[in-house]
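for the writeup, i need someone to sanity check this before i put it in the appendix. the sequnce is what the collaborator sent (i think, or maybe the updated version? ugh). structure was predicted straight from it, no edits. if anything looks off just tell me and ill rerun, i have time this weekend
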Amino acid sequence: MTKNSAIDLDSLGVDELRAITENAQQLIAKKQHQRLYDAYMQFEKIAEDSNTTIEEILKAGERLEKKRSIKYRNTDNSEETWTGRGRKPTWLVEALAAGRKLEDFAI
């Protein structure tokens, strides 16, 4: 069988179908592992080229992502923020109920 030939699954028995499924799952796992390994190796090279460690890059990324993803800030308490995703925080719900506009809190 060549790589491009189609298998007539309807003509196969249950045991043959199970074997195909098992082989496919093993191949998927192998390819996922290889993809992650390749990505890790690229990440390691970036860290080396940047004269840093992967851990330092990840920590910096978490800080940057947190800052970047904040879309709204409580004008009364700058520690309270919201990304605009998920349920609105209580401070924002209360402010909107009091007549304030969402735009008032946009960063």
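DSSP finds three helices and two strands in the chain. The CA atoms of residues 9 and 20 lie 10 Å apart.
thx in advance!!
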